[in-house]
Write a structure and sequence with these properties.
The chain is an alpha+beta fold. It has twelve helices and nine strands. It folds into two domains: 91 residues; 218 residues, Bira Bifunctional Protein, Domain 2 (BirA Bifunctional Protein, domain 2, 2-Layer Sandwich). Bound molecules: 3,4-dihydroxyphenylalanine.
Length: 332
């Protein structure tokens, strides 16, 4: 066999072998190509090696060298075909690697008000307050009567409450929970309760028909207004920062005597915004739950959770909390 024919055959063997490895897209195809070209018994490389004997001795060296490069090239092509198929994306036929990737699913997180609630509970927990709960659908006894709000009181007006058909109502304040806790438990009491309250208020940047309050109640021997003031001040500093300014204004609530309203200096520093109400638990309330006002006294407070969160984060509109705008929510 003359050398140039033999080399020509080697080269077409190389070209077709490389092509087979390059285009195989499944492991079975790679294996079939390996057997066809590199198979030890009947592979084409094996045959090409045996052709050496047919070449005249003086040309064998040259053929041998070319043979070796072809064999190495096919072995390398086999390796790289195997490696290519080991990558998982190659298992999907028709994969277009130039397409944009699948976006990572966006992780959700807790609503800013839920985060606030947890933080408030944590802060009061460190001041020794446990957590209580109460129903959102209340009866008039817990929402009004036991809180010393008589039938004639304007706070009971149907225009200011969401009454339900069976005489129950959506609670207008979390002070209901004070009553429920004291009914169940003898003094001392030290709890906070967070929940929704409902009032048919005109909606504006600081008012809504549904919002959250955090209610606090502490009843024990010798509790005074000083305990109330220092508790609220400590809390405000803890939640809003050491340099927060709050003020107490004399006020009136049927269930406290004396009563105060608590304001905080709003972010921007140019106006005071009401944080909530507070006071010393009225003796009538203590009596309504069977406590002896000559034995124990207590303080109570009810603060607006949205407003605390707004002050803390510089939010200007309470409606943001219920709009479900991801651009707003994702900032927390
Ligand atoms: N319940 C009152 C309101 O909704 C706030 C309040 C005032 C709660 C005085 C209290 C309190 O516990 O002692 O406006």
């Amino acid at each position: 066999m003359d050398l140039s024919t033999a080399i020509h055959e080697l080269e077409s063997l190389e070209a077709s072998g490389l092509e087979s490895f390059r285009t195989s897209s499944r492991p079975e195809e790679v294996e079939a190509a390996r057997i066809e070209y590199l198979g030890l018994k009947q592979g084409k490389i094996k045959a090409a090696q045996e052709r050496l004997k047919l070449i005249e001795p003086s040309a064998r060296k040259q053929y041998g060298q070319r043979f070796n490069t072809v064999k190495k090239a096919l072995e390398a092509a086999w390796e790289s075909a195997k490696a290519r198929l080991e990558r998982p994306e190659a298992a999907i036929s028709g994969l277009d690697v130039t397409r944009p990737g699948t976006p990572r699913p966006r992780l959700g997180h807790r609503h800013p008000l839920t985060q606030t609630a947890d933080e408030l509970i944590d802060l009061f927990g460190r001041l020794g307050f446990g957590v209580a709960r109460g129903p959102e659908v209340e009866d008039v006894f817990h929402n009004f009567e036991a809180l010393n709000i008589p039938l004639s009181h304007p706070a009971r007006d149907p225009a200011d409450n969401f009454y339900l058909s069976d005489g129950a109502l959506l609670r207008s304040q979390t002070s209901t929970i004070q009553i429920r806790v004291m009914e169940r438990q003898a003094p001392p009491v030290r709890i906070v309760a967070i929940g929704r309250v409902y009032r048919p208020d005109e909606v504006d940047p600081t008012h809504s028909f549904m919002f959250h309050q955090i209610e606090g109640l502490m009843v024990d021997r010798g509790i005074t207004m000083a305990h109330l003031k220092s508790t609220l001040r400590l809390f405000a500093q803890g939640y809003l920062g050491e340099d927060v300014q709050i003020r107490f204004r004399p006020s009136f609530f049927p269930f406290t005597e004396p009563s105060v309203e608590v304001d905080m200096l709003w972010h921007g520093g140019d106006r005071w915004v009401e944080m909530g109400g507070a006071g010393m638990v009225d003796p009538n309330v203590l009596r309504a739950v069977g406590y002896d006002p000559d034995e124990v006294t207590g303080f109570a407070f009810g603060l607006g959770v949205e407003r605390l969160c707004m002050r803390r984060h510089g939010i200007d509109d309470i409606r943001q909390f219920t709009l479900n705008d991801v651009r707003f929510l994702s900032q927390f």
